[in-house]
Amino acid sequence: MELSSLFDNLALGFSVALTLQNLFWCLVGAVVGTAIGVLPGVGPVATMALLLPVTYYLPAEGALIMLAGIYYGAQYGGSTTAILVNLPGESSSVVTCLDGYAMARQGRAGPALAIAAIGSFFAGTVATFLIAVAAPPLTVLAQQFAPADYCSLMVLGLVTAVVMAHGSVIKALGMIFLGLLLGICGTDVNTGNLRFTFGVDILYDGINFVPIAMGVFGLNEIMANLTNKQRRDLVSSKVSGLMPTVKDLKESFGAMVRGTALGSVLGILPGGGAVLASFSAYTLEKRISKTPEKFGTGMIQGVAGPESANNAAAQTSFIPMLTLGIPSNAVMAMMVGGMMIHGIVPGPQVMTEKPGLFWGMIVSMWVGNLMLVVFNLPLVGIWVKMLMVPYRLLSIAILFFCCIGVYSLNNSADEVLLIAFFGVAGYLFVKLDCEPAPMLLGFILGPLMETYLRRAMLLSRGDPYVFVERPLSLAFLIIAAVLLLMVILPFIRRAREKAFVEEG
Amino acid sequence: MNGGSTTRAGKQQSHDSNAMIGADDEPPRGIRSGQDLLCGAMFALIGAGALWVGRDYPMGTPLRLGSGVFPWLLSWGLIGVGAIVFVRGLLTDGPRLTGWAWRPVILITLAAICFALLIEPAGLVVSMAVLMGLGALAGDGHRPRELSIFLAIMLVLGVGIFIWGLGMPIKVFPWN
C-alpha cells in the first residue's frame, strides 16, 4: 500500500479518535479495563458483556472505542496485580507473577511496573501500526472471497480455536458444535422457519448474545470464585523508585521486541490472543536466555517479554475481526456483539463504508495505550486500594450489574431468566472441564456460517465440491485438516501438552 | 481463554491431570474418568435431543438448503464428539468429577430468577434487595456493618444510575 494513503487513513483516524467525546470514551474504556484487569476474578469478557447494554446509548464509534479500551486496559491492569500481589489479575498475566512478584519482593516493584507499562506501550504502538498497515490489503483480499471461501475460512477459524484451546481438544470441538447450534436457534432468516424455539416467545428472535455471555462468563465466574478461597499477599514494602535504570531498559529492550513480534503473530491467529502470547513469550525468553535458571527470581526479561506479548496480541487479534468479520476469540466475539448492537455487520465492508469508525477505532487504541502509560503508574496506589475490596462484596455488585444490564437491553425479564440458565450451564461446563470460550465463538459464527454455506451451494448449483474446487477454500480446509491432525497424532499432542504444562 | 481468568485454579488442576495421562507413567487404577463420562453423555444427549427436535425441519435441495441441514450436521457432530468423549471416559483414566459448590450455584441462580420475577411487579428497590440479599448469602465471611453499608450504597447507586441516569422505565417501589 502507498505510504501516503496510510497517513491519510491515520489522519482520518486521529480526527475521529481525538474528538473530546471519543477521547472520553477511550479513557473510560481504558480505566474500566485497568480496574477489572487489577481485580482478579473479573475478566474482560464478562465486563464487556456487562457494558454492552450501556453501549446501546452511545454512538457507534464511542461504543467500540470504549469496548476496545477495556480489552487492552485489562492487559495493563492484570500485570499490576501480578507484580504487587502475586495474583494474576488476568489469565494473560499468570507468567508475569513469576518474575514480577520476585522483583517486587526485592523492593523493585517500581521498575517492574514501569517496564510492564513501557513494554505494553511499545507493543501497543507497534501493533497499532501493524493493524493500520495490514488491514487494507487484507480487506481487499477479503472482498474477493466467495461464499465457499468464507465458509471454509470459518471452519479454519473454529479449528484453530480448538487447537489453541487449553485442555481437551475434543471437548473444545464439542463446545463449538454446541455454540453453533445455540447460534441458529430462533427464526431461520432464509426460510422463516422456527428452529429450537420450544414454543417460547423470547427464543423466536434467537438467543440474545448478551445473556449467554453474561451467564457463562459473569454469573458462572461468581459461582466459581465464591468457592475458591483467594489469598492476597500484598507486598508490604512501599512502591518506591518507579523509574527503571538504564541497565533495566537495556536488558528488557530485546525482550520487548521479541515479545511484541511473537504476540503480534499469535494475536492474529484465531483462538490465540493475549493468554497464549504471554505464555509463549515467557518460554521464549527463558529458552534464549544465557541464564535460564535465574528465571523466577526477578529477571526483568520475564516481565518485559510476556507483558509486551499480551498487549501486542490483544491488539492484533482485532485484525481478523476488522478485516474478515471473523472473531478470533471470545473478546472479539464480544466486539462483534457490540457492532451488531449498532447495526454494523462486521466484515471487509466496514473499512470502505465506515472509514471514520474503522480508523478512529485503530487510532484510539494507540491513544488509549498512551493514556494508560501516562495515567497508570501514578494511579498504582488507587489500584492497590481497590484490591482491598473483598470479593464477597464485589460479587454482589457484579451479580446486580449482570442482571440489570441484561434487563435494560430489551426491558425483558425473560432474558434475565436466560442468564440464570446459562450461569448454571457455564458452571457445569467448568466442572466438566469444557471451556466456554469456543462455544461463544461458535455461537457468533453459527448463523454466518449457515448463510455462507447456503450461498455457496446456491452459487455452485448444488454442487458440494465447490469447497474443494476453489483454491482458496481448499487451502483453508487443508490447513484446518492438518492442524486437527496435528493435535490428534499422539506424538505432537504430547509435545503440546508438555508446552502447556511448562507454561502453566 | 481470556474470560476465564477466574477458573484458573480449576484449569491448572486439569492440566496437571492431562499431563499425567500424556506421560503414560500412571498405572491404571481401575478408576475411569467420571468427568469424561458425564461430559460425553451431555454432548451426546444434547445432540440427540437437537436431532429429535429438528426431525421435521425441511432439508430442502442441495441447491436450496432447507433449515434442517445445518442443525442436522451439527447434531451429528455433537453426538460424535459426545460418543468419543464418553468412550474415552470408559477406557482411559482421567479426572474424576469433583463436588459441586451447591450453595453459591443455587443461591446465585435463585437470586437472578427472583430478580427476573420481581423487577416488573415489585420495582427496582425490592428486586435489588432480594437479589443482593441472596447474593450475600452465597458468600462467606460477611460482617453485618460492612455489608449493610455496602448494600445501602448499592441501592442508591442502582436507583441513581438506572432510574435517574438512564431513565429506565421501571418502578422504584412497589407502590409507584
Identify the overall geometry of chain B: flat
Count of the domains of chain B: 2
The biggest sheet of chain B amounts to:
none
Query: What value does the average pLDDT of chain B take?
Result: 80
Strand content of chain A: under 5%
Helical proportion of chain B, percent range: 55-70%
Counting DSSP E segments of at least 2 residues, the number of strands of chain B comes to 0
Q: Give helix and strand order of chain B, one letter per element, not per position.
A: HHHHH
Strand content of chain B: under 5%
Can you offer a commentary on this structure?
The complex is a heterodimer of chains A (504) and B (176). Chain A is mainly alpha-helical and 504 residues long. Helix content of chain A is 75%, strand content 1%. Chain A contains 22 helices and two strands. Chain A has a two-stranded antiparallel ribbon. Helix content of chain B is 67%, strand content 0%. Chain B has five helices and no strands. The longest helix of chain B has 37 residues, at 102-138. The two termini of chain B are 45 Å apart. Classes of the chains: A mainly alpha (504), B mainly alpha (176). The interface between A and B is large, with 102 and 87 residues.
Question: What can be said about this structure in brief?
Answer:
Chain A is mainly α and 504 residues long. Chain A has helices at residues 3-17, 20-38, 44-55, 60-85, 94-105, 109-143, 147-164, 169-183, 209-227, 246-268, 274-288, 301-316, 318-324, 330-341, 349-353, 355-386, 391-410, 413-431, 436-459, 466-469, 471-488, 490-503, and strands at 186-187, 194-195. Chain A has one domain.
